[in-house]
Amino acid sequence: MQVDRLLWLIPALPLAGSVINGFFGNRLARPTVGTIAVLGPLVAFVLSVLAFLQAQQGGHGGGHDAHEAAGFAHQVVWTWISAGDVSLPFGLQADRLSAVMMLNVTGIGAAIHLFSYGYMKDDPSFARFMAYLNLFLAAMLILVMGDNLVLLFVGWEGVGLCSYLLIGFWYDHPTQGLLNVDAGRKAFIVNRVGDLLFLIGTFILFSLANHELGWAGLESQLSARTLDDVLTTGPLAGWTVHGALVLAGMCLFGGATGKSAQIPLYVWLPDAMAGPTPVSALIHAATMVTAGVYLLARLDFLYVHLPAVAQVIAIVAASTAVLSGVIACAQNDIKKVLAYSTISQLGFMFCGMATTVWESGMFHVVSHAFFKALLFLGAGAVIHALHEEQDMRKMGGLWHDLRPTAVLFLIGALALAGVFPFSGFFSKDEILAAVYLQVSHEGGLWTLVLVMLLFAALLTAFYTTRLVMMTFFGRPHDRHRHLHPPHWTMLSVLALLAFLSLFGGALAHPFAHYLEPMWSVPAWRENLPAGVISTSVWFARILSTLLALGGIALGVVLYGPKRSLLDGLSHGVGARLVQVVEQKFYVDELYRAVVVAPMGWVADRLWAWVDRKVIDQGAVEGPGKLVIAASAALRHSQVGVVSVATAATLAGSVLVLLWMVSHG
Amino acid sequence: MVSTLHYLLLASALFAIGAYGVLARRNLLIVLMSLELMLNGVNIALVAFGLRHSANASGQVFVLMVMAVAAAEVAVGLAIVISVFRTRQTVDTHELRSMRG
Q1: Which residues 6+ apart lie within 8 Å of A43 measured at CB?
Q2: Which residues contact A429 (CB under 8 A, 6 or more apart)?
Q3: Which chain B residues contact residue A641 at CB under 8 A?
């Protein structure tokens, strides 16, 4: 079935739900609001499935060589920007890459909307919540369906806005530490830094590609450039085309570090956990934070020619994976652990993209969406049951009291730890295998990347085990607690996601095959002997299984029934070390001192001098004061005597007449 | 022979006398009368030029116009003077100084 003409409905349906619930939601019954909110994503999901199938039937034209002949659904909804030689359509497309992301977004999205109904139905602002969530989905769909870089950026900003709105959703709740609204602001402002880089990258590509910004146009224009040509005009005059492309690639990756929470811009994601838990699952684990990975996949034709940039990406991403993995080991807030885990897993995804084995990173996006959404929603069910308690030290022993939730959560945890046969095992292995291939091809820094990733895999298994042990096993913190049972919608969604986490690994091969026509691949990988590939795969499988089991064993030993070893470690130097990690290596404090405080100081001065002195007192009050002073001086000429005024008039008239006579 | 210059001299004299009256006298009624003198001085100048350029009737037409306006102005002006006198009990311009800045 051809869905070209229906593509606009996919983002429009959630948008319509958002408008209805946003404007009239408070007057509708809650089940009605919930139905409207779930229905949009659900229908969008069905349409996405159709688009997915159409892209598959479209042959192997892929998104690159033959845009028109490829057969995937494409719809120009209207001409959006038309100025001079620039013409940008508001065009939506569902090629194989977009279709995969659409299924991910609408599928997981619809499930999380359903979960949210059970989770949020007693909140006073339920309709507002659902409206935001729907709006997010619409923006995310524009991001993945846009057929040009600018439309992608529109969705990129749209999801950023929704993220901000949802992090600060409980703006009036009392909080410890950062206020909810401040957490939202932090996310928004940190992302601005990334967005600036994104824009600079876009501008460079725009000028290099002769003002083309559609995917096909970008690729054909960029590949037509000679890399050694020297640019003669513009701010980059004197640079070679290759140099400009490297700069663009770095800038766009910089944009991705903002949205996808990589070093140095990852600091907003842990604080984003102030939002309701379904938000953390949908936006800050399954969909929005993977937008950066999608961006790199979309621009594969660019990065495949920039191995140096790819190496930087790999180093940054692997460092992120290790750093956040370490921090996750010492957090006590269940959502914070999952947040740092998400950052770490995003690091894995970026490493996968950096190896140019694109499907490995993309598959981790999908399988991570399954199990991390499951973990977040499971954590949400636990938090819900314990009346908004998030501190794992106050949990413990929930295995018996919350049996169904605990079992489902455990499936997600095993998938995250990377245990065979859960989906996380397969997707993480693909990335490790890809990095291993890169090591055997180039060596050098890639060896470091591989070691870091293996360490991060060990950490993943460890902190996941710690999380499970602290939450579900051990002594209950309070024997007489009253638990809030999960709503049926919550349990059914957890079950669905657990099913996907359990069997998602089976998708690995068909997934890679489906996406294969999309990718640009470096020449050296085209004809690899099968032996090399299978070596890399087995290397990854065996080593990651060992590491996962090792991490789990370590977690069980330290956080199991006998905690004597842990108690022994947490004295003296050990305790201080734990504190440093628990305080996230004081990165927030460092940023506050190095970036926030100086900018605050400058802003203060600007406010005091420029705003108050120049603008308020100078430009605004100045003219008023001038008029007052001038009129105070001139008013004395108004003596109020008719004859004086008349004499002045007469004298003036005479002067004018004289002037006219003398000037002919 | 009476030339245009003579007419203009008369007109200037009338205008100057009127202007002096407007500026120097303090009685509003006298000021109004002096104003009429000024207008008529201008009228004489206009008809003098009309005589000189007899092909062009603008001068005469202007004079008729000025007369009509002056009549209306006197009517309004006198009404104002009466009104001022009723409220202030004076028509002395030096005592009517409420517009002083």
Answers
A1: A9, A13
A2: A418, A537, A540, A541, A544
A3: 93-94, 97
Q: Is the peptide bond before A510 cis (omega within 30 degrees of 0)?
A: no
And the tokens for A79?
């001409």
Task: Report DSSP state, residue A240.
Answer: B
CA distance B100 to chain A (A): 4
Q: Is B5 on the interface with A (CB under 8 A)?
A: no
Helix, strand, coil percentages (3-state) for chain B, rounded to 5, are 80, 0, 20
| Nearest-by-CA chain B residue for A644 | B23
Residues of chain B with Cβ-Cβ distance to A637 below 8 Å are 101
Burial class (CB in 10 A: 0-12, 13-18, 19+), A408: buried
Residue A62's nearest CA partner among A96, A94, A92 is: A96
Question: Alpha-carbon Rg of chain A, whole angstroms?
Answer: 30
Measured CA to CA, the distance from residue A159 to residue A140 in angstroms comes to 6
Q: How far apart are CA A607 and CA A602, in angstroms?
A: 8
Residue A59: per-residue pLDDT: 53
List the alpha helices (DSSP H) in A504-596: 508-515, 523-526, 530-559, 564-569, 572-582, 587-591
Q: Which residues of chain A have pLDDT under 70?
A: 1, 58-70, 176-177, 478-480
Give me the residue label for tokens 């997981």: A108
What's the pLDDT score for residue A444? 84
Smallest CA-to-CA distance from A45 within A131, A108, A129 is with A108
Distance from the A662 Cα atom to the nearest Cα atom in chain B, whole angstroms: 20
**Alpha carbon distance A271, A588 (integer Å):** 11
Nearest residue to A646 (alpha-carbon basis) of B79, B32, B76? B32
Nearest Cβ partner for A642 among B19, B93, B101: B93
Query: Residue A438: CA atoms inside 13 Å, Cβ hemisphere, count?
Result: 30
Q: In whole angstroms, what is the distance from residue A619 CA to residue A241 CA?
A: 46
pLDDT of residue A70: 63
Report the SS3 class of residue A7: coil
Contacts of A47 (CB under 8 A, 6+ apart): A3, A6, A7, A9, A10
Number of CB pairs, chain A paired with chain B, less than 8 A apart: 31
What is the ipTM for the molecules in this complex?
0.83
Distance CA A554, CA A557 (A): 5
Chain A closest CA to B26's CA: distance in Å?
A: 8
Q: Which amino acid, B69?
A: V
Q: Is the dihedral of CA B26, B27, B28, B32 positive or negative?
A: negative
Cβ-Cβ contacts under 8 Å for A285 (sequence gap 6 or more):
A338, A342, A368, A369, A372, A373, A375, A376
Q: Is A76 helix (H, G, I), strand (E, B) or coil?
A: strand
CA distances from A49 to A106, A215, A518 (A): 10, 22, 18
A248 Cβ neighbours under 8 A, 6+ residues apart: A200, A201, A204, A205, A208, A302
Instruction: Please report, in angstroms and rounded to a whole number, the separation of the first and last CA atoms in chain B.
Output: 53
Sequence-ordered list of residues with C-beta below 8 angstroms from that of A339, at least 6 positions apart, any chain: A269, A270, A272, A273, A280, A284
Partner-chain residue, chosen from B22, B31, B100, that has the shortest CB–CB distance to A639: B100
Instruction: Look at residue B83 in the predicted model and tell me its pLDDT.
Output: 94
Q: What's the half-sphere exposure (Cβ side, CA atoms, 13 Å) at A576? A: 2
pLDDT at residue B101, rounded to an integer: 72
Query: A414: which 2 tokens?
Result: 């095993």
What element of type H or E holds A90?
Answer: strand A86-94
Residue that the structure tokens 């049951």 belong to: A385
Token digits of residue B54: 């007899």
The helix/strand/coil state of A239 is: coil
Cβ-contact A191, A259 below 8 angstroms: yes
pTM: 0.82
Interface of B with A in 17-56 (CB under 8 A): 19, 22-24, 26, 31
